Amino acid sequence: MPEAIWGLIGVVIGAVGGLLVNHLRYGTVEQRRKEVLEQAEREVDNLRRDQELAAREDLIRRREELEQQLNSTRDQLREQERHLDRREVQLDERHEDYLKKERMLETTQNKLAERTRHSEVREAELEKLIKQEQEELYRISGLTHEQASEMLLTRIDRELNNEIGALILKQKSKLKDECDREAREVIGMAVQRYASAHTSESSVSTVDIPSDEMKGRIIGREGRNIRAFEKETGVDVIVDDTPGVVIVSAFDSVRREIARLSLQKLIQDGRIHPSRIEEIVAETQKEMDSHIRQLGNEACQEAGVHNLHDKLVDLMGRLHFRVSYSQNVRRHSIEVSFLTGLLAEQLGLDAQLARRCGFLHDIGKAADHEMEGGHPAVGAELLKRYGEGPEVVHAAAGHHDDIRPEYLYTVLVAAADAISAARPGARRETLEKYVRRLEELEALACGFPGVEQSYAVQAGREIRVIVNSRQVNDREAARMSREIAQAIEQALTYPGEIKVTVLRETRIVEYAK
After folding, report:
1. Full-model pTM
2. What domains are there in the chain, each with its CATH number?
């Protein structure tokens, strides 16, 4: 029993303890709940105050922005108002000006109308007076109105014709002066842009020798070497006291060049005798063809003219050995090519075609001894034969005004040719006459039967004629010498006297096999 009671007491005490523990726990939770609620209320209050403060600040900011916009709009309205006020004042002033001008215009119109009426009255009075004067003039002169009108018109027509003629002459003179000025300007520009040096061609060449001992070897025993050399080449070899050089003289540049090259080869070879001289001269003559081709190619390259026929290139190289009034024709052709091209550029024409026309204008001088006719006709025939264009052919045929120019390039070539020939020191007419006299002298001697070659030497004071020994004997050679001298006296004009030397020799050649 007591154990049950104690057990019941224990149960009661446990229940009471549990109740106490629950009560304490419930009190703590309730207190925590209150604290949380109070904290939440405080946060809500703070958040509400922050939102109210932010809304109030935003409202203040917007109000300031609106006030600024309002102030700006108000300033703009004030400015527009001031502008409108100024415009209104200007319009008022302009209106006042218009009113003044309108009043002045009305006054002027009234004055003009008054003057017009006055002028009409005066005009009517003048017409009446003129009519009266005309009737009086008709009565005094005895002419009708139609006759007086015709006389007046005739006089006016004559005066107008005189004035028109004078005006035409004045304009023609002015136009001629202007054309001359433009032409001088164009030619002067071309000459200024191309300046070429000029040296007169000489009729002698010098050959350097290693020592004066070589002079004796060139002359040979009793002069046989120098005579053989002069016979083969047709030149004069002058061996004088001048140290270190031997002079080769001939008016024909081709002969002189062959002789100079041959003599140089003989000096280098050292074997100088008649048979070796003959071999060297023959070899040099063959080499001259390639040298002429090289000279032609160099001229084409310098002038900028390409795609020429090989025959034309060779003919251009031969012009290196042709002179006109002491002016080298190849150099002259190159210069005319450049001048023609420059003139064509100034006039807006084809400069390449113009250079080609100028380059080939004297090509006939390289073959005029082989074909009949002057060098313009010969050159035109050659250019036409080797496929050149009509402008180039016509420029060669007409650059000396032998035919009427059909192309402007022909006129330009003629002008460039005259410019090149007129340069100071370019040409000397006396030398051309001298060369022509020597050529005529040689041609006259070659016209006799049996003559193989003829050479004019000693500046034309001697003519050496080489005859075929099989066709001409000694007696015929003596007779031919006299006949040639008589023909020279009758056909040529020359100073002093000319020595005629006829050379005849028999040469027998055999070969040992």
Report:
1. 0.45
2. 200-303 (3.30.1370.10), 306-427 (1.10.3210.10), 435-503 (3.30.300.20)
